[in-house]
Amino acid sequence: MVKHANPYEYSVNQVPPPGHLFFLSFQHVLILFVSLAFPILFASQLNETTEFAASLVAFSMIAAGFGSIIQALKLPYVGSGYLCPNVVGPSYFSLSMSAAWTGGIPLVRGLIIIAGLVEMVLAPIIEKLKKLFPTYIVGLVMAMIGISIIKPAISSFFGLAFRDDATKSIDLVVGLFSLFVMVFANVWGKGFIKMYCLLIGMLAGWILALLINPEYRYAFAAVKEYPIFALPVIGPQFRGIKFDFGMILTVIIVAIIGSLKSFGNLLVAQKISEPELTEPNFIPIRNGLMADGISTVLAGLLGGMAVDTSSSNIGVAGVTKAVSRWICVGAGVIFLMLAFFPKFLTILTMIPKPVLGGSMTFAGSFMICSGLEEMFSETWNPRKTFVVGIALFFGLSTGFLPSLYARVPGFIQTLFTDPLSTTTIIAIALNLIINLDVMLGNLRKKGISKN
Amino acid sequence: MGLLSQRRIFPILAIFLIIFIAGCEKKYEELDLSMYQYRDTKNLVKFVYDASLILKKDGLKSLNYFRNNRARYRTPEYYLYIYDMNGINLFHAGMEYLEGQNLWDITDKNGKKPLQMIIEALANPNNPHAWVHFSWFEPGKFYPVPKSSCHFKVKTPEGAEIFVGGGMDYPHEEREFIRIIVDDAAQLIAQKGWAALADISNPVSKYNYRDVRVFAFRPNGELLISPVIMDTAFTQINLLDCVDEVKHKPFVKALNELESQDRVWEVFIEKNRYKKEPIKKSLYIHKTSINGNAIYLAAITDLPEPPY
Lengths: 451, 308
What we know:
The structure holds two protein chains of two kinds. By secondary structure, chain A is mostly helical. Helices cover 69% and strands 1% of the residues of chain A.
């Protein structure tokens, strides 16, 4: 294998050879599949038909695939140019459900369009926030993105389909095996083995699951019912777009939180792709948010579920050291095309949940440690201790004590939503408050020097 | 080097283990579990079904096997019991002292008679795994727990008719549970007409368990059996006007769909004070008629929530 001068197998602007490009993109596509559980669950909770579910999945995949492509292509004002693909966003799941009950899919489409527009409006503002994000807060956000994967990763690891349901030892075996293969391939493997550690681990876990759990084998019987090629059906549910002004405020809040998560993901993608930067470059991040907003609007126009940037894929890029943006383009193209090939799509949706859980744990571990490394890379002081400590206390408490936050006054509920956004907001605010004397001192010095 | 040298024995053992584990699931191929959403429920049905296969094969002499392997049939999740069709306990994995006793008239704290309900459920083709819901207690404990149990009737090689069952404490609310009681209520209406309404609304009947209640209403939304209290006169609601947390009218939507079919599942959203996210509930409605007058029977249950 060719040795590169940089620490990467493939750096951000490097185009991998076609074979590698395909397999590296495919490796990312496998991780993206975890999010398809959301449109499937959405359709089942609405008691909709299989045809509706298939169309919803297809439209969501087209939007996510398109979003991944424009995110990485780096067009003028649109796209960060980093490996930061789109998934079907869990951030908007509950909101979409409420909208579907109130006004059906036309209202879901309307709200998703508004959410995308909110993100597009926020994009240029983000650029002005440079001062709010010193290195240690960027590191904290990175670590929190990894922490935010814990819930989906571990519930998938144990093969859980519904909250509070039973776990199965066989699933744990599959998840652990898959995770260990990935770790072994990454730590002790070289060249291809290291670069494809995730793909190897996922395939190994899938094969083991097929061997030891007949449920996964039986599931394959369904594949023959699906055609090789099919266009999504625009059923009566997908016709029309509606808006409900009573829900606008909720949409805006959810969209801001979603944007904050994408902002964090883009920061991490930048850190992984361009570690030589001493402070965040907000122009690609602004363009990245714009791309995310556009793909969310597209999801609404098409009738799919809202899309979101994927934390797990950024982690995978970091672990494999293959951060080429062309891999993101490739993953987007494959994801988009699979929407039209139901047979292959069905096969890939059968990846056992514990295998997906293993891969998210693998990627999340990298994110958490990179964040901590970044956070402690600069000189530490008591001010930083309290900014980070207090932000973590309250941020993580939203995950540990959800029932407590269900009973606090409304304005606190709005602020204390989930660990990532709560920690970020509190850290930014505390950083400003605790360093107020320093800022005032700086201003005074500037005033004296002017005089 | 011998065939079973140390280096080869582990892969061979691994292959045998895989074949063994894979083979364990084969016996469930004839057991339809597709109506259940939760793994817990499926595991319980498999657990009881396994025991029924042993009884079917080895007959009454297998009771000794169950008694000698009591610990195997009492897990932290559930335990097994076997009765004859007259209510005499033949085996109880959790409460050994019940063996030999007749529990036909035993009554739970709400006035339900579990044994009599089980015998009725076993004869009901609409309830393929003979589910019953009642209040019980855990072995050695002193407080009531809600319980849902499934059962299989077995004819032993000796010709004896017995049943085997197992129950889940604090069970998940399966959609199948309300389908069974609503469809049963429709069947009762077909048999008894207006007189069936008194049976359906009786709080100790199978049509009422935990917070689930079969209720009935006319096409204009007027209540015949209230979903919430015994006396419809005090309910003061018209179901067609009812809205959920997001102003959706589940009954109006359901009745539109019932113009072209006789059963429908509808979903609506409600608040739970202990959760930030709203919760989803499922409504099952069955259209039937009495003397040419259309009426609707329905029940409400929780929907499973995503794992995160």
